[in-house]
Give the backbone structure.
Amino acid sequence: MQPQQALAALLADAEQMQHAAVRSMEALAGGSINRVYKVELSSGTTLVFKWNAAPPPGFFAAEADGLRTLQDARALRIPRVYAAGEHGILLEWLPSVPQRGRELRSAGRELGEGLAKLHRAYGTAYGYPRDNFIGTLPQGNSQSQSWTAFYRDHRLRPQLQLAERLGYLHATRRRLAERLLDRLPRFIDESAVRPSLLHGDLWAGNWLETPDGPALIDPAVYYGDREVDLAMAHLFGGFPRSFFESYAAHYPLAPGHEERRPIYQLYYLLVHLNLFGEAYGPQVDRVLVRYGG
C-alpha cells in the first residue's frame, strides 16, 4: 500500500478527520525505520503520519498501545493517537522547540521530573500485557514476578539467540554471555526493584521539547527496573546533565546503579548488533568481558 492510500485509510478511521481533505503532505527527515510525513488538513489540523510498506505484523498497533499507556500516566507530553493500521499510524503533531544553554537545562529538569513521575506508575508484574517491538525486532513481554528472570529470559536471551542465528555470536561471545546470564542475580537486587512503567527506548531522538514541555515519542513500553530507561539515556548521549540531576532529586536511585548500568545497556547494544551489524560488537564484548569474564 502506497503512503497516500494508507493515509486515506487512516483518515477514514479517525472520526475527527473523516470529512477533512489533505492540503499538504511533507516528508520529514530522521525516520530510520518508517517514512514520516507532516500532514496539513483542510480543517487546519496538523498531523504526523508514519508509514511503512512492509512492517512486522502488529507493528503500528503496538506503537499506538504504548503511546496510550504512556499518556494514561499523565507524566509527560505524549502525542495523541488518532488511528493506526497495518501500514501506518496517525498522530498528533507536536511542534519541536530547539533548546540550548539555559533553556536546554530547564527542559532537561522538566524531563527528569516527568520521567521520575512516569516511573512511579507501577505494574503488578514485570513485562506487559502484550508483546511489542524494539526497533523492528520483536520484544516479548511475558509477565513475571521476578525482574532478574524477566530481564534474562525476555530481554538478553532472545537477542543473544538472534545474534547466533545472524552469525554474530562467536564461541567466545557465547561463553561469556552464558556466564553473564548465570551471574545476573549477583548484580541485581530483586528487593530494590519495583515494576515501573518504562518508555523502553529512551535515546535522545525519542524526546523533544515542545511549547507545552518535554514530550516522549516512539516507545517500547513495559514494566521493569526504572534504571533501564536511564541506562539507555546514558548510552548514546543527547541528554543534558540537568535531566539526570533532576531525576535523581525527584526519585533517587538505589546504591550500585552505576555498576548495573552496563548490564542494562547490553540489551540495547545487542539490539543494535542485530539490526546494524558488527560495528557494535566491540561494545558488546566489553560488557561481556566485564561481567562474564
Notes: The first strand starts at residue 22 and ends at 28.
